[in-house]
Amino acid sequence: MSTQDNMDLVRMITEKGLNNGDVSFLDDVFSPDYVVHARDLNLPAGPHAFAKAVEFWRQSFPDFHCTIEHMIGEGEYVAHRFSTTGTHTGQLGQMPPTGRKFHVSGVDMHRVVDGKVVESWISDDMPRILIEIGALAPAGGPPAGGPPKH
After folding, report:
1. Hey, which end of the chain has fewer CB within 10 Å, N or C?
2. For residue 103, what are the β-bridge partners?
3. How confident is the model over 32-44, as pLDDT tens digits?
4. Distance of CA 25 to the CA centre of its chain
5. Single pTM value for the model
6. 37-69: per-residue pLDDT in tens?
7. CB 110 within 8 A of CB 31
């Protein structure tokens, strides 16, 4: 497959899977030993890791939408800069819906071999999302007037 084919595959996964909630293609486009690299996120290996991620986002934010703003590819690797939006109208772990919206940006990278995604590096900005939906207070800055004087 060409680099453009790999880029088209990642775009399809984003549009059909994340944005539309359709994961019927999993076994066709993810390798059986697919691995997700995401800080503090333990997903099982295999295609159903992606299904679990889609379920998480769409359960908590039914209008979840990821817009790919720029995509580049080099050989097996495809990276894309994106912005994601959603409204917290579903349960998020133990947190009931707040009805608040979020808008975050990030960059993800995927490795595609022989037409199948074998690895993904995910950069979800969960702290920013939690701040925007009111689940987490933003960290305070320095006191007014600058640092304390001694």
Report:
1. C
2. 85
3. 999 999 876 777 8
4. 18
5. 0.85
6. 987 677 788 999 999 989 989 999 999 999 999
7. no
